[in-house]
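Re: Re: token formats

Sure, here are both.
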Amino acid sequence: MTGEYAPAEAARPLRGYLTVIGIYTTAVGGLAGLARLTGRRPPARVAASDVALLGIATHKLSRLLSRDAVTSPLRAPFTRYVEPAGDAELNERPRGSGPRHAVGELVSCPFCTDVWVATGLAGGLVFAPRLTRLVAAAATAVAAADFLHLGYDAAKRAAAGP
């Protein structure tokens, strides 16, 4: 399957991707089934404020999970350290082949991790909306603080001049 999709030097772990897709689909199906069994219903509409809150929280949580130095032990079975990537972040490369490589790509890519985090937060709105909003608000506050730290450092560098 992979040989027909990409040349050998650019081989992609398609079976691994299918495994990851299967796990994601099973998790979403499990959440939907659990919601049905417990009588939980998704909100009729999601407020724009929740979309903004969860969007910023998803950004922060996915970067925390996929790039932060402190969470590198969670990624280590699937990635290999390459180098620092700026403030408290790391560059890592997926390791292995098949599902291990596919998971390595997932856990080291904030864009890829976004889908999983957003799904978890959306599920949280169904099962525990108050707690989910609290966790999302905390992650949003951390994201705001990160941007303030970066802005403060940039202002200090600008004030110091060349």
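Second one below.
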Amino acid sequence: MTEAETKKVLAVLRGAYPNFYRGMGKEELLGVVALWQEMFADDPAAMVAAAVKRLIASDTKGFPPVIGQVKEQLRRLAAPAALSENEAWGMVRRAVRNGTYGAAEEFKRLPAVIQGILRPEDLKAWAAMDEGTVDSVVQSNFMRSYRARRAEAEEWQKLPEELKRLSLSMGEALPSLPEGLPG
């Protein structure tokens, strides 16, 4: 987003929440513009504006949205729903059924985010276990891991490209993304 586009988005917020911005001086407003421009530098202005308006339309508390809320709204607007943990577990459960002899092939068919959580050997081991254990203990552990991986990937998506590059240059691993999240 350019500075002019940022000012337009912030003008919408200022119009919707006049009391919040009333006491701000010029220096403070310029700081807000600079921060929003930096945080949304890689995002299309039309999408940011749509996210802001969506948040305004659903606001019941009377406070303007913060950057993180707008980033979350952008993520929701840009990507279809990611696999739910139940859908992901269903895929794993189907793979386990053929895990005794076909673990490697079943593993290759799973989405990358699931492959990042388990190994082909896990499918084989789970296929040999009692179904009650698989459907309780293994399922619970997998779903917890999937939730954590999905949350990590969603947080990564909200970062500006500059911060992503900096994180990668410092050796931080790129999280594998759940289905539906853009890379």
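The CA atoms of residues 38 and 95 lie 44 Å apart. Confidence is low (pLDDT under 50) at residues 177-183.
- S.
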